[in-house]
Amino acid sequence: MNEWREETDAIIDELLNDGSNPDSEYTIEHHFACVKFDKLEKLAVDLFKADFEVTDAEEVELEDGSIIFCFDASRDGTLDAERITREIESLLPLCEKYGVDYDGWGTYFEE
After folding, report:
1. Rounded distance, CA 70 to CA 35, Å?
2. What is the pTM of this model?
3. Which of 19, 60, 74, 109 pairs as cysteine with 29 (C-beta 3.0–4.6 A)?
4. Pairing between strand 101-106 and 53-54?
5. Where does the record say this protein resides (predicted)?
6. At how many degrees (to 10) do helices 2-17 and 81-98 cross?
7. pLDDT (tens digit, 9 = 90+) per residue, 44-75?
8. How many other CB atoms sit within 10 Å of the CB of residue 38?
């Protein structure tokens, strides 16, 4: 979990150092991937029930030719590292339950 805290702090610092508005509301997108679509779909249902906005799954071909499926789940909120870290902490057990990889989070620059 320490790695996710450090990454969260780094993402927020980069945004703010680039001039993103610290008082804006941001769409925080959490990224998920799995080789088995059915497992990813089960996670998506749970996240939808937990009030996340869930995107449609996409099929992605990797450099080695293998296929993975991925989607994002998002919520709006401030750039509060503790809040985002708590979200990650709540998502990781669900990922483990379904055998889905958590692939980090991101957001967009806000004026």
Report:
1. 9
2. 0.92
3. 74
4. unpaired
5. Cytoplasm
6. 130
7. 999 999 999 999 999 999 999 999 999 999 99
8. 9
